[in-house]
Amino acid sequence: MRTGGLVALGLLSGCAVLQPEPVGTTLARETARSAVAPAVSKLAPGTPVDRAVDCVMSYASRGQVEALAQNSALGQPELNDDIVTDIIYTDGTRACLRGNPLHWLLF
Fold it and tell me: How far apart (Å, rounded) are the C-alpha atoms in residues 29 and 42?
């Protein structure tokens, strides 16, 4: 009986696979956050910038985050507007931005 419990515990403990975040991901996300703020202030005036940046970063794909970071590093911030626009027009981001009744009217 005790052996069966240990075997079950051993099998169940193998179910949780933890994968650490890749090393460069946090730097890319921080760089992308700083690139999103100016684009959001242009594309969604009147929206609280911190909230909008949080929404955009929450729904950005890994490729979009890397592209935003790369454009910022290469000194091409004008390319970020297109990426941020794509992220804003996804359903999840728009729902996030609609946090209060004013946003329901704007977006």
Answer: 20
Predicted TM-score (pTM) of the model is: 0.67
Q: What angle separates helix 62-73 from helix 25-43, to the nearest 10 degrees?
A: 80
* DSSP one-letter string for the chain: -HHHHHHHHHHHHTT----PPPTTHHHHHHHHHHHHHHHHHHHSTTS-HHHHHHHHHHH--HHHHHHHHHHHHTT-GGGHHHHHHHHHTSHHHHHHH--SHHHHHH-
Burial of 12: CB neighbours in 10 Å, binned 0-12, 13-18, 19+: exposed
How many other CB atoms are found less than 10 A from the CB of residue 95?
A: 13
pLDDT tens sequence across 81-104: 999 999 999 888 888 887 755 555
